Amino acid sequence: TLTVGEMVKNYLAGRHDLRPTARDKKAYDLQPLVERFADVLAQRITKTDIDTLVRDLAEGGTMTAKGRKRRPWSSASVNKSLQAITGVFADAV
Questions:
Q1: What is the pLDDT of residues 58-92, one digit of tens each?
Q2: Neighbouring residues of 77: CB distance < 8 A, sequence distance ≥ 6
Q3: Using DSSP, how many helices (H) and how many strands (E) does the chain show?
Q4: To 5 degrees, how large is the angle CA 64–CA 55–CA 37?
Q5: pLDDT in tens, 19-44
Q6: 44-53, long-range: CB within 8 Å, 24+ apart, which pairs?
Q7: Three-class SS of residue 3?
């Protein structure tokens, strides 16, 4: 019954080893996941959902919470976001 939004919140709260700036960066990297899937049960997220999110970030045009269109993310930025997403799901397991 855990949503993706709750899962990310728990993950960030549990990262006591990070400086505040590093925690903020993790939150930024995870923002597209939260914006798209915040209210979705974590068990319902599929590999295809994540692959689609990664592709959309690389191509640009995803919407922020403030209603602005994102520019395409670089490969390095997409990889950092994907690493953070992997960490969230690993932590939840």
A1: 998 788 878 888 899 999 999 999 999 999 999 99
A2: 29, 57
A3: 4, 0
A4: 50
A5: 999 999 999 999 999 999 999 999 99
A6: 45/4, 45/89, 50/82, 50/85
A7: strand
Residues across the chain: 93
Question: In this structure, what DSSP letter does residue 66 have?
Answer: T
- CA–CA gap between residue 90 and residue 42 (Å, rounded): 12
Which two structure tokens, joined as six digits, stand for 67? 């209603």
The identity of residue 81, as a single letter, is: S
How many whole angstroms separate alpha carbon 86 and alpha carbon 70? 22
